[in-house]
Amino acid sequence: LDTKLLRTDPEAVARNLARRGFVLDVERFRALEDRRKSAQVAADNADDVMFAQMMIPHHQQALELSALVPERSTNPAVVKLASTIAGEQQPEISTMRALLLQWDVDPNAMGEHSGHGGMGMQGMVDDATMAKLQSLKGPDFDTLWLQSMINHHQGAIEMANAEIANGQSVDMTALAKSIVTAQQAEIDQMKQMLGG
Fold first, then answer.
1. Least CB-packed of 36, 103, 123, 129 within 10 Å?
2. What is the pLDDT along the chain (196 residues), one digit of tens a residue?
3. DSSP assignment, residue 137?
4. Which residues of 90-123 are buried (b: 16+ CB within 10 A; e: fewer)?
5. Which of 171, 187, 24 is nearest to 103 (CA)?
């Protein structure tokens, strides 16, 4: 029995089997195959859930940081980068929330490892730095913002690498790989913008 042909053209396999006196219920096979594929995509573990529960507030802080830029920076490259970061991370939040819902997990619930105010997560910007950023403008703002976002991105990469190593969900590990690629490129860009 050619299993590759069975998955791509079950009718041809059914005709071939019928010539030999066997019966293949194509519709039942398709239903079982759809269920198998769905189970593969939907499979998750505690690491997948924890990653999403921690990365959602982490990304939300990146959106807050990005929202500070337009009124405080005079550097068009920083303004453009902040817009790019927000444009990437909002859809990622939506994806993680949807996967949590698919796994019957409340997307608004924080993971037990998130700590007070999200400070258990790598790279989170503390309240004092957030307040300082809100008080600065121009080059001083840009420098502290870039330094904060580099650290924030490095924390996200650490969490994403843990998901890649330990997660089970194909969708969530693919998202984690995408986060690593995008955020490492942005770290490199931000380091250049800082002059080093």
1. 36
2. 555 665 667 677 667 767 777 666 667 666 666 665 655 555 789 999 999 999 999 999 999 999 999 999 999 999 999 999 999 999 999 999 999 988 888 888 875 444 434 446 789 999 999 999 999 999 999 999 999 999 999 999 999 999 999 999 999 999 999 999 999 999 999 999 998 6
3. -
4. eebbebbbebbeebebebeeebeebeeebeebeb
5. 171
